[in-house]
Structure formats: C-alpha cells, structure tokens
What we know:
This protein is of the alpha/beta class. 31% of the residues are buried.
Amino acid sequence: MNELEDRIEKLEMKVxxxxxxxxxxxxxxxxxxxEEYIQSRARDLRIVELVNSVSDNSSLDLxxxxxxxxxxxxxxxxxxxxxxxxIKKAEKFSEQYETDSRMFEYEMxxxxxxxxxxxxxxxxxxxxxxxxxxxxxxxxxxxxxxxxIPREIDGYPVISIGEExxxxxxxxxxxxxxxxxxxxxxxxxxxQNLKYIDLPNKLEHFGNLCFYNCGFESFRVPDSxxxxxxxxxxxxxxxxxxxxxxxxxxxxxxxxxxxxxxxKIFLPDTLKTIESNxxxxxxxxLLVLPEQLESISADALTxxxxxxxxxxxxxxxxxxxxxxxxxxxxxxxxxxxxxxxxKKYRIPMKPLNEFKAEEYGL
Length: 362
C-alpha cells in the first residue's frame, strides 16, 4: 500500500510540474512579443543609419526609440528570470518522465527518407545520426492531450522523429527531449489541435512539410536550425508570430505559404536565400530584407520590399518577360541590384531614405 501511495504522490508531482509549465506559456509568449518589438526597433535604427548615410537631409533622431528599446529589454529580462525556475522544472520533468515505450513504434536511425516519387533515398543531412540512436516512427496512444517523448528506449537515445510519425495526431502539446536532432517530413503534419511544441535548442534538422497544417499561433525556431525547408509551415492558418534562431540561412519553397494570419515577419540578419512562393497567400504587407541577403524569388515583390543591401539578387526564374501584374513598392539603394531589376521590369521604386517605418507600425 505504501508503494502505491508513493507512486501516486510522484505522479501527482509530475502533473503539477506539467501544469506549471503550461501556465507559464503566456509569459513566454509575452517575452517573445517583446523580443519581436526589440528586433523591429533595432531594425528601425539600422534603417535610419542607412537612410542618414545616403540622405541630404539632417539626421533623424531616434534617442526616444533607443530608450524605449532599453526599457522593453529590461522588462523582458525580468519576465525571463521569473520563468526560469519553472522552465528548469519542466526540463527536468521532460528528461525524467517515465513514458510507456509501447505508445511508440521505433527503429534504428538509418538516414533513409522518402523522395517525391515514394522511393527510399539516403538523406545526407542525416548521415551524422545513422546508427547513433532511435527514430520514432509512429505513436499509438489514445486520447492524450499532452505527449512527452522519452529520452531513450531500450537503452538507446531517441534521436529523430520519423516521417508522418504523428500525422493527424489530436494532442495539443508535445515535449521533445534534448536528445532529438531531426524532425522529418510531415512528422507533425495535419496536427490541427497542436498549440504548443517544446523543441530542444540543439535540434538541427527540419524536414519538408514537417509542421504542415498545425494549429499553433506562435512558434520559436531553435538556434541551431539553419534552414526552413519547403512547405515547412505551409497551411498553418493560425500562425501569427514566429521567432528565428541566429543561424537561419534559407527559407525554402513555400515555407510559409497559406499562413493566412501572418501579417508581419522579422527576417533574421543571417538569412541568405528566400525561395519561390515563400510568403504566398499570407497577410504580410512588408518585407525588410537583410543587408546580407544574397537572393530572393521575384514572386515576393507583390508586397512592399525594403532592400537594405546593395548586392541582393532578385531571381525571376526562367521568366524573362514582364510578368508583374501585381507588384508592391521597392525601396532600395542607388546602384543596387534591386534598383536595376525594378527598372528592367517597370516596378515602382523609391530611394531607401524615403521609407517610413512608422507607416507600417514598426
């Protein structure tokens, strides 16, 4: 009897920790919104620096903006400190949680994935993980609202989430251990009830369509992710806010297509490539393109585009004809590739120093 009571007490403690974790999400979302504010204001200051460098007018004064950023940054740090203890509890909980491995099917990580034609091929991105741990291939649980993936099964670490492993799953939250390095194609496809996903900071690989048609409103991309692959967040109709890590280099084809609630997106300074149809059928009206961006698909020019760099190429694919029946405005530097492209295809453009960030709520 004492053993049973002890097990019940431990279970109640785990439930309490999980509830505390979920309760703190509101504060985390507030912190993310502050981070977006800080990024937007920092971008504002960078834009003004560029504007001042090419403008004949007197320099713009953004000292009030700088003070505002400092104040918000302090508030954000305070919230993060308050959350820190609960988050540590949650991490300890997810690492020590004893889940029934019978809820999952799994296999040794092979590096094999399914290509467009249904054929199994070796994915070079997965080569470092081959034979190093297990791949979750499916989930057999019933009516679970929250799922915790185990750190290990049969003595082997869980290292990846396989193709369509949780396809059509109905849970609202999932906790993924820090052993996991890769999430493969359509792993969480069509999880329309999924509101929260706890991703490890050292996650390195997303597969195509891995979050297709999920139900979350906000999302944080781990710092170690370098590419948002094709259709990664396609049809996430409720997704409004997304925060990126500091290593993102590529947005793949249709990465955010049909994210109908997405009105703003703050592009990371590390971004180098934006592929075709990346923002199609979203509510985005403005793209402030980083100075180091190397190329962007021409189909993005249906919105206002602010080119901070001079060398960014605009890729019109094989279409050499003037096909811009619906275009936005291009703000760019004199002599930039963007200016040359706009002239060639008769796209409306203005000098960068005429861009007014406040008109777009930045």
